[in-house]
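[Solved] Which block belongs to which protein?

Original post:
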Amino acid sequence: MENKQNKKIKSFAVSTISKMEDVHPMDAKNYSRMKYGDPIATRRSAIQITSHLFRQPEITKYIHADKTIFITSSAYGYVPTASYSVTREVTKLLAASGVKIDRIKFVRNGDFSTNHYGTLSAEERAKKMTSRNIHLTEEDLVKIKDGFVLVIDDIAITGSHERKIHEILSQTEARDWAFIYLYKLDTELGNKIPETEEHLNRADIKTVLDLIPFFRIYTEYDLKLRLNSRVLKFILTTEPESFYDVSHDVAVKHLKEFFALIDDKILADVYRAAMSPDGYHADPKFAEGLHILREEILERRGLSRLFNKIMASIEENLNKETETPVLA
C-alpha cells in the first residue's frame, strides 16, 4: 500500500516561466484581466487549462475509467479567488465533454484581508500558510474517498499553497490527486517575489478605472463579472502597496469616479463582499475605501433602502459560518 505521506506531487502547467519574456504581452494582459474579474479572460484561461489537462495521462486515465473527477480551486473563505472562477469555467467545459464532475471546496479561515500575494516574499508566503486554517468539510472528506481530486489554480509561484493542499490530501482517503495551473514559475524566478508575480498581475490593470469594462452586466453567454478577493482589496485600498499603485490622492479620486460609473446591482455586490465574514470591513486599511463606497450607495435613491437591508443582515451574517461564495 502506498505511503501517502511520501507521495510525489503531480503538478502540471500550461506554461512554465523562467523569465518574464517567456510570456507573450497579449497573454500577460489576458492573465491580468482574468485576475481582476474579466469574464472573457477567465473563460480563455479555462479553455487553455482544459485543453492542457486532456494531454496529461495521469489525469485522463481517470476520465477514461469513467470515474467521477472531484474538482476544486485554491482555498478561499467567503469571497472567492480568481482561481475559483477559472475552476468554475473548467468544470463547465469538462461537463460539456461528458466528464463526470463533482465539486469540493478547500475552506480557508483567517487572514483574508491582508496584503494580496503579489506583494509577499517567499518567506512571507510560507509563514502565512502555517497561520491559515485550510481544511475540507466532513461531507467532502467522505465524498472523495477512493476518488481522484483535481486542484486548479491560475499560477504556482513558490509551491507553498500546493504543498499545504498536498499535505491535507495525504491525510484523506482520496485515491489520487493532481494540480494543474495556467502558469508555473521555475524555482529561480519564483523566489524573485513580489516583482515577478506583480508584473503579471498588473500587466493590463494599473488603476481601478481599468476595471470599468468588466463591471458591467452581461446578458449573453453567461458572461458576468467575477468579483473576487483580489478585486475587492484592489478597489478598497487607497494607500499605495505596489510599485504600480498611484498616490493616495489619485487613488481616492479614481475610486469616486469608479463608483459613480458602476451599476446599482454590482455596487451592492461589492458592498456585500466587503461586509462578508472574511472581515474586510474590520481592516483599517480598507476603511477609507469602504467609506467612499457607502457614500455612493447612500446617494442613490434606489440603493438607500437596499443599504438598510444589507446593514440589518450584517450581524446575522457575521454570527453564522458560511461556505457559499458571494458571487458563485
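(Second protein starts here: sequence line, then its C-alpha cells.)
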Amino acid sequence: MRDLLIDITRLIGRFMQGRLPTGVDRVGLAYIEHYRHRALAEVRWVGRGFTLSRGLSDRLFDRLLCPCERHRTATRMLVARGIIAAMGRPAVTHRLLLNTGHSGLEHHGYARVLARRRVQPVFLLHDLIPITHPEYCRPGEGQRHRTRLNTMLDLARGIITNSQTTLEELGAYARRIARDLPPAMAAPLAPGLLAMPPAPRPLDAPYFVVLSTIEPRKNHWLLLHVWRQIIADLGASAPRLVVIGQRGWECENVVDLLERCESLREVVLERSECSDTELVNYLHHAQALLFPSFAEGYGMPLIEALSLGVPVIASDLPVFAEIAGDVPEYIDPLDGRRWRQVIESYAVADSGPRSAQLERMARFAVPSWKQHFAVVDTFLERVCA
C-alpha cells in the first residue's frame, strides 16, 4: 500500500499554464522523485481534495518530472478523469499528506477538508517573507500568509523548513501569536538543477548572471543602475548582465529599464524563457552569480551556482551565511557603489578576489537531496510514531 499523499495541485497548475519551475516548484519535484513509489497524487478542486489512483498518479508524476509542452491538454484530461473517478470512491484517510508548496493553505475551508478526511498533513515552509517584509509582496499577501501559517500551526503533524533561519522565524511567529509549535525541523535543500557538462560559451564577452523572478524583493533595479554606470565608463568593453527569470509583479520600473533604456541594450540580456540546459550553461561560464535580494527564506540559486563552481556575489543576509558560510562575497543590498566595485573586479580575467573565492569554494560541501531526505525520512517516521 502507498502510505503517503503528495499534493501536486500547484505543480499541475503551473505546468498547464506553461510556467517554468521556480525554486519552490523544484523542491516539490524533488519530493515527487523521492517519494513517488510510496505515494499517491492529491489534487484540490473547488475546495475539495481528491486522491488519484495509482496508475493516474504515476502518469502525472512522470509528466511533472519530464514535462513536455504537447502533453498539456492530455494532462488536463488526466486530472479531470482522476477527479471524476475519485468522486465515486471512499476518500483516502489516515495517511500522511505532504504539501511542499504552501498550496491551498490561504483558504479557510482547507482545514475543514483535512479534518473531514482525517489525513495528517506535513507542510514544507519556505519563508515568512510576506509577514516579515510585506513591502516586497503583492497587496494582501501578508494576511494570506498569516492564514497559511496559522493553518500549519493548527493542523500540522509536522513542519519542515528549508533553513534554520526560517525555523527560528516560525518559532518567533508562533510565540508572538501564542500558538504551540508542532514538531518541526530544518532540512537544507540541494540544488534544483542537475550538473551538466558545459557547452560552448553563450557569449564571447565576460558576463554575470542574475537568476530569479523579476519582483521588487530581488533588487534587479539596483543592478541595472549599476550597469548604467559601468557602461557610461567602460562603453563597449563593459561586462554583460544576463537576467534569467520570468517577469513577476510590481516590477514596472525594472521592465521600463529593460525595454526603454538605450544604454542597457546589447549589454543587458533578458532571458525569460530559459531551459534548464541553457540555464546551467549560462551559469557555468559566468564570472559570478549576482544575488542582491532584500530577503530570502533559503536561496537555491546560490547553492546551484556554488555546486557548479561559479562564484557568488550576494546580499549579506543571515540565511546566506547559514547555507554558504564565508564562501560568497557579501555586500549590503543597498550599497550600489560597493556592488559596482566588486562586479568590476570580478570581471577581470585574473581577478584576485574572484580567485580567492574559488579557493574558498574548494572547502564548500554542496548539500545533497540524499542528505535532505535522510533527515526528512527520519522526521516522518517520528511524527507517525
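Accepted answer:
You had them paired correctly. Confirming on the second one: The domain at 4-190+369-384 is CATH 3.40.50 (Rossmann fold).
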